[in-house]
Amino acid sequence: MSAKRLGEILMENGIISENQLNEALRLQNKKGGLLGIILVEMGYLKPKVLADFLEAQKYS
Protein backbone atom coordinates (compact mmCIF):
# COMPACT_ATOMS: atom_id res chain seq x y z
CA MET A 1 0.00 0.00 0.00
CA SER A 2 1.49 3.34 -1.00
CA ALA A 3 1.48 6.45 1.16
CA LYS A 4 -0.98 9.18 0.29
CA ARG A 5 0.33 12.21 -1.49
CA LEU A 6 0.47 15.55 0.27
CA GLY A 7 -2.19 17.13 -1.95
CA GLU A 8 -4.61 14.28 -1.22
CA ILE A 9 -4.07 14.61 2.54
CA LEU A 10 -4.59 18.37 2.45
CA MET A 11 -7.79 18.04 0.41
CA GLU A 12 -9.20 15.27 2.61
CA ASN A 13 -8.67 17.49 5.65
CA GLY A 14 -10.31 20.51 4.04
CA ILE A 15 -7.11 22.57 4.04
CA ILE A 16 -7.11 23.19 0.29
CA SER A 17 -9.70 22.77 -2.42
CA GLU A 18 -9.39 20.62 -5.50
CA ASN A 19 -9.12 23.79 -7.59
CA GLN A 20 -6.26 25.09 -5.44
CA LEU A 21 -4.47 21.76 -5.73
CA ASN A 22 -4.91 21.67 -9.50
CA GLU A 23 -3.63 25.23 -9.84
CA ALA A 24 -0.57 24.42 -7.73
CA LEU A 25 0.07 21.22 -9.72
CA ARG A 26 -0.09 23.16 -12.99
CA LEU A 27 2.48 25.61 -11.65
CA GLN A 28 4.64 22.74 -10.41
CA ASN A 29 4.54 21.11 -13.87
CA LYS A 30 5.46 24.42 -15.50
CA LYS A 31 8.22 25.60 -13.15
CA GLY A 32 9.12 22.58 -11.03
CA GLY A 33 9.58 22.64 -7.28
CA LEU A 34 7.95 21.03 -4.28
CA LEU A 35 4.17 21.11 -4.06
CA GLY A 36 4.10 22.12 -0.41
CA ILE A 37 6.37 25.11 -1.02
CA ILE A 38 4.29 26.12 -4.03
CA LEU A 39 1.11 26.00 -1.94
CA VAL A 40 2.75 28.20 0.72
CA GLU A 41 4.00 30.67 -1.90
CA MET A 42 0.52 30.85 -3.41
CA GLY A 43 -0.90 31.68 0.02
CA TYR A 44 -3.04 28.53 0.23
CA LEU A 45 -1.08 27.04 3.11
CA LYS A 46 0.79 28.34 6.16
CA PRO A 47 4.32 26.98 6.70
CA LYS A 48 3.34 25.46 10.09
CA VAL A 49 0.40 23.62 8.52
CA LEU A 50 2.71 22.32 5.81
CA ALA A 51 5.15 21.01 8.43
CA ASP A 52 2.35 19.30 10.36
CA PHE A 53 0.94 17.59 7.28
CA LEU A 54 4.36 16.54 6.01
CA GLU A 55 4.86 14.82 9.35
CA ALA A 56 1.45 13.13 9.01
CA GLN A 57 2.30 12.06 5.45
CA LYS A 58 5.50 10.49 6.69
CA TYR A 59 3.54 8.15 8.95
CA SER A 60 0.52 7.47 6.71
Description:
The radius of gyration is 11 Å and the shape is globular. The protein contains four helices and no strands. It is mainly alpha-helical. 67% of the residues lie in helices and 0% in strands. The protein has one domain. It has helices at 6-12, 18-31, 35-41, 47-58.
The percentage helix is 55-70%
Tell me the radius of gyration. 11 Å
β-strand number: 0
Oligomer: single chain
Which secondary-structure class do the elements indicate? mainly alpha
Quote the average pLDDT. Answer: 90
> What shape does the CA trace take?
globular
Strand content: under 5%
The largest pleated sheet is described as: none
| First-residue to last-residue Cα separation | 10 Å
If helices are DSSP runs of H or I spanning 4 or more residues, what is the number of helices? 4
Number of domains: 1
Poorly predicted parts: none
The SSE string, one letter per element, is HHHH
Task: Indicate the topology.
Elements: H1 6-12, H2 18-31, H3 35-41, H4 47-58
How would you concisely characterize the structure shown here?
The chain has helices at residues 6-12, 18-31, 35-41, 47-58. The chain has 60 residues and is mostly helical. The protein has one domain (6-58).
Features:
60 residues; mainly alpha; 0% strand
